[in-house]
Every structure is written in structure tokens, then in C-alpha cells.
Amino acid sequence: MDASLAIEKFREYLSTHNEELNPEKKERVIIDMNELRMFDKDLSLHILNNPASCLPWFEEELKDMEQAMHIGFSGSLGANSLNPRSIDSTFISRMICIEGIVTSVSLVRPKLRRSVHYCEAEDQFYDKEYRDGTMVTKLPPTNFIYPLKDQNNHTLNSEFGLSEYVDFQTIKIQEMPENSPPGQLPRSIECILTEDLVDATKPGDRIRVYGIYKSFCYGNSVFPSQFRTVLITNNIQYLKALESIQMEELSKKLDTFKLLASSSIKFSAIAPTIFGHEEIKKALALMMVGGNEVVMKNGSRIRGDINILLVGDPSTAKSQLLRYALNFMPLSIATTGQGSSGVGLTAAVVLDKETGDKRLEAGAMVLADRGLVCIDEFDKMSPLDRIAIHEVMEQQTVTIAKAGIHTTLNARCSVLAAANPILGSYNERMSVQDNIKLPESLLTRFDLIFITLDSYDSERDDSISKHVLNMHISEGKNETEISQPLFKDFIAYAKSLRPKLSREAANAIAKEYAQIRESKDKKHLMTNITPRMLETLIRLSTAHAKLRLCETVDIDDANAAIELLRNNLIRKVVRKETIKRIKIEETSASQIEKEGEPATLVQRLTDDLRSRIRDAIFNWKVSNPDQETCSLVDLQQAIGFSTEDLSSVLEDLSESKLLHFSDNIVFFFE
Fold it and tell me: Which residues form the MCM C-terminal AAA(+) ATPase domain (predicted)?
């Protein structure tokens, strides 16, 4: 199709769709490629293959009809709908559509379009237009030599107030983290925004961009071997606006979802390859749907996302649970404690090497907005880096005030973290805080904290062995489990609901919160009881109602949340015949049990024993002043007591810096 025929066809299209194309903003009119394709297929193909040659003429037609000054496109572009990884040289100079996440945004700068100059000697004004490859125009590009003198060598004074400028901004779009192939770096593309499109997006936004894919030379090379490619943007769509279409498709499966919601089998679909951990799996299901976010009239926000921390012995499936949640959630980002910094998790201001401008680059938590962040080896993070995520975990924002850039980015994500105890394995004789060694300000930001212990239980070990062997025999398939695609659709639909809190549920939550706050036996509590615990109960109750596909949070949802929180928060003491270590998978601490005697007596006897062991250790040191080191075996033979009890006391003394105990060797300080 030649240019004249294309202009005639486009004029005809405008006349028949004038009312539909009347834009809310006069700067740009958006044309749906699906409707244009139905009107004239050849015209749509011509626009896709030769956009730079026809768009300037089309914009002239709009100006003649007193319509918008610029044209943007939407709808499906067929094979030209791409992502940053699938772009290649065959799409240069064509109209394409890119989906991705904004990772970097530059400052908005004025770009000179026409300069005006005044010559005092001749008392005349001169002007000059500037056009480059980033402009969609009918005329060829011009040189960028700024005039300082006229043809008669008279000095020209620049009239900056009379010159014309256009707003100019660049952004980088990266392919979705969840769609990046394993082991490969995610790819990105630079997009150029002008005029009304500048400041239309920020880091962390998931968008669909329409524009012309063009290439430019690096520097002023006459024959360059490499080219810089950019996307000249003409329209931006937010992918969140497309969620309503997906919900309409999911609503067709509502009958199946209701059957699934009414059954407790839905929790077995969480990490089916992992045996046990029923309470943790239930908590993960609640985290996936989350609570309701509340935005107050004053602009403050109460988060609806649920944060979970897993702490325990090695080889207790903590990382596997994180990996399942990472692969299951449609929007999730994984990181590790040692491999992340504070700015890497939040945001950073960097310097653009080409232009020298400052750019704002998003971190993992900003990129995971409305999604999930999985942090493994959480205990390996430095204290300063952990402080950087305090704001994200509660206020769900990232505030930047660096290098003259002051802004606030959204980081509305759930945090699922896994950590090992400070001593490598969980010490049941130490308090929870001493085992974890995390500050109280951070622990209270987690709604649920689970401690998993690697206990020795022959029956349980036999069950785990059978489960693992069955998974290998069936090659990872389980006929009794719910299909993962169906469960993903169920979670997506449940997450879209917004149940309201009933008065009965609110009263039950308030009563439970008051009882926990008034509890006198707080030494067995996981963390201090703060008002954040009240919000935790509301979030868990709301998430439980979502899993039941209910529009109201009733008393049953509140009771389920209360039971889960009590099991997670309170360290129980049960009576049994002998004191022994037992496995507690879904509660917050170990249990010391003895039948027929109160728990306080058991605790007192344990303290007395530990005191006698400490006295014996220091008495032995006084009797052997020249001994700077001693093996655990020799010390046990010298003072008695069991090796297990002696090791526990030595670990406590080592933590208190009274001596050093490592690799079964005791080092005494002078």
C-alpha cells in the first residue's frame, strides 16, 4: 500500500469512528488495532511495517480535524507483541508491543525543538529547528550545531524564553522476573517518552508499551559495528487494568472453586512433595490470598499482605517451602541474605554513564509490588541491610531522598523469609530470641513465625521415608493431589475477593487480643504482644474468609485465625513421665514435658542443674589455672554430668563471652 492510499484509508477510518476516537486528553488519541484490522487489514499491516513513514501524515490529518496532536495504539499486534528477550533485528523500524516491568526511570529533561536568536547588529530574529531520530516527523533529521553567529559573522543572542522545548524522559523495561529463564540474566530495553507520556510510570510498574523499534549509532562513528536500539513510545498501558478480563474468565469456574473452598483438601495442594508441616502449609495458603488493604482518608495505609518467617534446624524443608511459593505465585522474586544489600532490596539512585543524568532503579521489593519476596538465609543479612526493609514490611513503601531525588515507591508485597538459628541448630534450652538473634522491631513485623526442629522419631522418620520413596517411584506425580493449574486459578480468584469484617468476628478478635495482652505467663511467648498483633488477627481472619470464598468474615474465620496464632505464638508446657525432647513442627518452640509435676518445678530443677554445672566448670578452672584449653571429653570426665547437659551449658557460657566453645574444645579467657 502506497502512502497516498494509506492516508485516504485513514481519513475514511477517522470519519467513521470520530465519536469513539474523541480523546479525554487532547494531546493523544488511541487507536485500537483490533478495530482498525477489522476496518482494513492492509492499512493495519502498513502501519505495523512502516510506522515512521505514515504516522506523521496521520497526525496531520488529526490536526486538520481539530483532534489530538499525537497518535497512540492499543490492542493486539499479533507477531509484533513481544518481550525484551524475544526482540531481534527483524523488528527494527516496525511497530511493536513490549510487556515488562519498569526497573529504571530518568529525570524529565527539556529537549530543544526550535531555538530563537536575536541579532543586535541587524535587529532581526532568527530561528532554527532541531530534529533527530527519536522524533516522528515527515522531515529528515537536522544537524545539532547551535548557531552563535549569523552569515555575516554577527553575534547571535539566544532567546531562551521564545524557544520551543519538548519534555523528554527515558525508562528501562525488563522482562518479568518470573518469566526469565533460569540461570540467565533478565533482558531489558530502553524506551523514550515525550510530551504527555513523561512521568506516566514509575519503577516497579508492570506495563505494556507500544512504539517504533529503532536503532542508532554509538557516538559519531562513520561505520559502527554495533547499534543502540530504543523504543519510541506512543502509548502505555498498565497490566493491572487487564486483571478484570482475567477475573471474568476465572468466574466461569466458580462452581469448581466452591467445591474446593468447602473442603480442607485445598491445603494439601501446598507443596505436595513435602511431608508434614500442615500448619505451615495452611499459613502459606493464607499468605497467598492475603488480607484486605485499607487506605485511610488521611492517606495512610494498613497493609493486607501477610509476612512469614521460618526458623529451624537445617534439612527441615524451609528452603523447599520457599521455592514452592516462589514457583507458584505469578509475581515473585527470590533473593538471599548474603546476596542482597539494603539498596538492592529497596531502591537506588545511579548515574547514567551515557548522559550523566541520575536514574532511579528499583530493588527486589519494589519490583515485587503486589507479589511475593522470598528471602533465604535471612539471618545472614547485615543489621544495616535488615533495617532498610523495616519500612517496606509495615508501611509497604520505599522512601528515597538521595542525590536531589525525593520520592516514594510502592512495595506492597508479602515477605517469606527463612533463617537458621544462630548456633546452627535450634537450642531448646535457650529462649526463642536468643536462638534467632533478630531484633524485636523486626520480629513484630512478621505475622507468623514458625520453628521447625529436626527431632528423632522413628515413626515419623518411617513416614517421611515412605513419602520420599513414593515420590521417586511415581516420578513426582501424586494422583490424590489437586492439579496445580486449578489451584493457581482458585488462589487468584480468592485473592480478588474483599470480604467485610462482621461485628461478631471483630468482638472475638478484640477479646482474644486483650486476653493475650493480659497474660501473665509471657516468658513462653514468641515475641512481645504489640498492637500489630491485632492487625495480624484481622489479616488472618480475612484471608481465611477468602479461602472459603465468603463475602463476610464471620466468627468461624476469627476462631481459625485465633487458633493458628495461638499455636504459633505460645510455647506450651505439657506433662509427661520423663523429660525429653519432642518434635514441634508447627508451633513456636520446643516443649519440656514431665508428668505429675508442675511446669514451674521442671523449670526450676533445670535451672538448678545448669547452675551446678557452671559452678563445677569454674571450680575446675580455679584448680587448673595453667590450663587454657580443654576438650569436652576430658572436662566431662573431670566434673561428671552428661555430655549433652555439659555442651548446653558451655554453649550458653560461650554466648555470654565468658569462654569460647567450638568443635568440642573449650577455650578459657584469662
Answer: 268-468
How do the residues of the chain divide into helix, strand and coil, expressed in percent and rounded to 5?
40, 25, 35
In degrees and rounded to multiples of 5, residue 543 shows phi and psi of -65, -35
Instruction: List domains and CATH numbers for the chain.
Output: 3-76 (3.30.1640.10), 80-241 (2.40.50.140), 249-293+482-572 (3.40.50.300), 307-446 (3.40.50.300), 599-668 (1.10.10.10)
Q: How many CB atoms lie within 10 A of CB 140?
A: 6
Residue 210's pLDDT is what? 92
The HSE-up count of residue 623 (CA atoms within 13 Å, CB side) is: 9
- The DSSP-derived string for 437-449 is ---HHHHTT-SEE
d(CA 391, CA 373): 15
Helices 632-639 and 599-623, packing angle to 10 deg? 100
| pLDDT for the residue 209 | 92
Cβ 621 vs Cβ 634: under 8 Å: no
* Under 8 Å between Cβ of 422 and 303: no
Using the predicted structure, report yes or no on whether residue 593 has a pLDDT greater than 60.
no
- What single string gives the DSSP state of each residue in 233-293? EEEEEEGGGGHHHHHHHHGGGHHHHHHHHTSGGGGGGSSTTS---HHHHHHHHHHHH----
Per-residue pLDDT band at 130 (split at 50, 70, 90) = confident
pLDDT of residue 601: 34
Kind and range of the H or E element at 321? helix 318-328
What are the phi and psi torsion angles at 281 (to 5°)?
-65, -40
Going from the C-alpha of 489 to that of each of 281, 306, 364, 493, the distances in angstroms are 18, 20, 25, 6
Question: How confident is the model at residue 135, as a pLDDT?
Answer: 79
pLDDT at 365: 83
The yes-or-no verdict on residue 288 having pLDDT over 70 is yes
Find all residues with CB under 8 Å of 625, minimum gap 6, and list them. none
What phi and psi values does residue 97 have, to the nearest 5 degrees? -130, 130
Q: What is the secondary structure of 51-70 as a DSSP string?
A: HHHHHHHHHHHHHHTT--SE
Q: Average of pLDDT values for 396-411?
A: 78
